[in-house]
Task: structure prediction
Amino acid sequence: MENPKSGKEKDKSICCNKESVYPRACGYCHTHYVGWIEGYKTKAWKKGTDCDHQIENIPVELRDARVSKYKQKHPNRTVVKGDIIIFAKSSYHDKLYRNHMMMICDGLTTIPLDFDYIDYGTLPKLFDPFKDDVPLTYWSLDLPRKEKGLNRSVSTYHGGTNNHNGVIWFDIKPFMTECLENINHEVDPDDDTLLWVYSFFECRQKQYYIVFGYTEISKIDRVNKKILGYVNSFGESLVPAEMNMINDLVNLSFRKHIPDDRILCVQVLDF
Result:
């Protein structure tokens, strides 16, 4: 699946509120501000409070009821697997701290974010983009969208979790041999003592790049061993990729012809 094109074509393609299929054809999840659940407003939104996990304590029947009420109020919108659900009003968008009041739809109900990697939550591990042929940037953006018929308090967004690093999880093992065979490196344009280390692999006839970070030139011979050790440390679990780190890769040569939804940043080395 390719990213939506820019300009007018993109504006047309994102008019997909009535889609009920995951992943959405527009190439992005939707974020739904479904409103507060009574009794949980003042406890969980204040910036700096220790409440990252508090939303998990809200009974599932209350969460489901709040989402049902939202869908009744907005019958032209669908909540699809992979969509972000925020139990707050959209007017609180800039007041919510990181991922507070945020969950995700698993296709049946709302489930918590994953807290194994970062203590304020990431995309849950059940969403492996390679398993379902989902763009890697599906949850990375947070773009407000204006829609006809809505007031200024827009409650549907394209893009996903405000989890700081845009973490997604993927199974690297099927591609590990190919990655190690295709290890490459480039000198950092700002520091000629450093090398950026990356590789590439193919999946569903698409080429993906995976960036492992940078290292000192004198340590380049240790890179393969370090990559293997990092991957093995996760055992049978999926490996995290931090999509927001793509912004640090502006000077790497492959960025000229590889779109963001084909690049993974796996923090084996420094970034």
